[in-house]
Amino acid sequence: MNSKLPVGASFLLGRLLAGGLYLSAGIQNLLNLEGQAAYAASKGVPLATPAVVAASLLLLVGGASILAGFRPHLGVLPDQAALLRKRVDAMTGRAIGASALTTAELRILPLLPTHLSFPQMGERLHVSRNTVKSHVLSIYRKLGVSSRTEAIDRMDVLGLHGAS
To answer: In the prediction, which pLDDT does 148 show?
Structure first.
């Protein structure tokens, strides 16, 4: 017997649990407004009662958003990746498809032209030296180069210095 849920069902279950948890916390805060406000005031929160009401409403809205499946725009990285793909496609005359740079590689790309070593890059990005090395080698492969200097030159040709 296979007890694994399909990915879609697992995601839906997680959404229901997380959304329900936030909704429940918001409702509990409002039902115990006096106690929550007293606790907040004891911790030095100014305007404790309005702060608890505001936090509770945020919990309710957040929980409802999660249950409804609402996903806000989480940043510009997808747009930057799409722009990068278009630039590379235009320069090479072909779509890079599976060779597109990953999000992790895009984080490392602007550090290549710097004086930073792999361990220093890893510190800045909170990853190991080996992770940096792996991503850099993947970038080299995707850019069709075999060294950091060649990669920087290729980035210049492709206009990738401003992509990050």
So the answer is: 92
What are all long-range contacts of 32-41, with beta carbons under 8 Å and residues at least 24 apart?
A: none
Tokens standing for residue 7: 């990915």
Contact 113, 152 (CB under 8 A): yes
> Could you identify the residue written with the tokens 């590379």?
88
pLDDT in tens, 125-160: 999 999 999 999 998 888 888 999 998 888 888 777
pTM: 0.41
Structure tokens at 95: 């779509």
CATH number for the segment(s) 77-158 = 1.10.10.10
Place of tokens 């609402």: 70
DSSP line for the chain? ---PPPHHHHHHHHHHHHHHHHHHHHHHHHHTHHHHHHHHHHTT-TTHHHHHHHHHHHHHHHHHHHHHT------SHHHHHHHHHHHHHHHHSS--GGGPPPHHHHHHGGGTTSS--HHHHHHHHTS-HHHHHHHHHHHHHHHT-SSHHHHHHHHHHHT-TT--
- Proportion of the chain above pLDDT 90, given as a percent: 37
